[in-house]
Amino acid sequence: MSTISGEGQFGQGIIKYLQGDYLDSEKYVQRAIDICEQDGIEIVNQVYYETLGYCLQQQDKNDEAMIYFQKSLEITNLKRNSLNLDSDKRFHDSLNQDYLENIIISYIKSNQPDETFDYIEKSKAHAFLDLVGNIKQ
Q: What is the average pLDDT value for the chain, to the nearest integer?
């Protein structure tokens, strides 16, 4: 019996997501993450976590979705710190903005106004620091 690789599981998850089958998509993407972790991959691709967040968000599991969007944000920040090219850093900054927006949306859907406000402020501060950093260059 053959097993499907992490990438294969993720691909199946994407197909299920596009078909609107968010529960099966969640299962496939979670398996992909589990396989990566079992294989000793230290930093799982942040897109896996992001996609799992979207699956959960579509099922109104917003508290869980926030966890995975936060993991995506953390991984992107780790990767950004090791980059030398400004264009690569700007790309990762745009990913961070996307993850922050998804966290904010999840907080709004979870009816958590204080946390929503905190993340909005965090997002604005992040955007401001990016702007200042780009001006200095």
A: 79
